[in-house]
Design goal:
The protein is of the alpha+beta class and 476 residues long. Helices cover 51% and strands 11% of the residues. The protein contains 17 helices and 13 strands. The radius of gyration is 23 Å and the shape is globular. The N and C termini lie far apart (59 Å).
Length: 476
Amino acid sequence: MKISIYAKILAISCLLSALGFRSYAAEPTSEAITTVSKYDHINVFWQHMFDPYRFFTTLFERYGAPGKPISFYMPTMGRMLMVYDADSLHTLAVLEGQGGFLKKGYSVQFVSSRLLGSGFAVLEDGDLYKNIHSKMKPKFIQNKMISHVADTQKWAQDFVRYLKIQDKEKKWIDLEEEMLTFTMGGISRSMLGFALEMERSRELSRALSGLLSKIISEQFSFRKFIFQTPAREADPEYQLIYEFLQEVIAHNQESEQEENPFSEVISDVMKDPQLSEEQKRDQILNIFFGGHETTAHWLTVCLYFLSQHQDSDFVAQIRAEAEAFRRGEKELKSLTYLDAFMQEALRIDPSVPFYGRETIAPISFNGFEVPVGTKILISPYAAHHLEKNWPDAGTFRPERFLTPLRMDNRTFIPFGVGKRSCMGRHFSAQEVKLFLITLLLEEGRVSLDKDCKLDSHLVCTARFRKTPWGRISFPH
């Protein structure tokens, strides 16, 4: 199909406008920040114009060594400030706690319109958020998560039996897709009291992943300036997810059990007469979104490193802890070596490598004034790879975490910082831990395809760039 000269001129004009050449006239300068010049920015942009993960990580690798916020320009997003040093993260956490300075970033707003609706994960501070948050957050504390151990452990055992069948048939499997299937089924059982079958878990996981892929490509595309973003109800993947949510709600409403079949995490929300049916449905969807993709990536990264270190003394200690847990000699929260292994995997490749905020009032970093409307990119990836905090940051060394970090530490932030940090982190860690324990107790060994590398990209959360093909083998 021929493209008219007018269309070409329009496309070039849009591109030049999006690149924001005029905006460079007002480049911020300060000793408190590092500013990427327009020439350096253009160089990085043309290398990674369709890959936001590499765009952001390349900026950090080139300009992040001083440990100061990085000011740069992102096409389709505008002027941004990448924040990852402990002092600036502390400042942001304090300001967010005070309220009136920051709001959720553009990315969250975009995901809200395309998927999450009025769910707790994307709501700004307000009466609706406070109502839902007050009902859910107390149910997510670590001690409350113990009530979900039996359901998650049973599902992990069922899933490992499935993996044994794949091993007998000598099948290579997509490890990340299998972990996505596992976490989808795990959340359904523990959070909703609804036992998803394996294939249904896989179908819904693929639908959610497909929708997220569309969302991230739309967000960082020039198409959004030309075409109207479709409503979520018009998307076939969303329709599949919507039908499942309706099925779950109907199942619980029709149950004749005296107790509410929903997990206690969500039951108070589902019984709240002030919430509409759509708002209730959105809360369930937010639980799936928040705990499915992120936990699955964490698990896959753990399997990646397990394949490389399964004969090490460190993993031998984890196996001993797993045996002690099976015998009832150790509690789940006391598995020091397993915790350290999991945390180091999450440090190197965090499931949420970047997330955003936007200033709604002027703020300051070490004397540098940040104006209203500035997009703040908070980067767990950058915080976890800052050499002054993590020497030899690119090397997997789980012994780093054998000494517990202080609670107010801002150098390790896989679940975010401040009052809007991930409330489901204890459930996620418990799910990862129980799967790995089950796998190790069954003497599972992980083998990866020779081309498999730890190289992620963004699908709202982190994902392996290339399919992580592998085998999980068991003694026969």
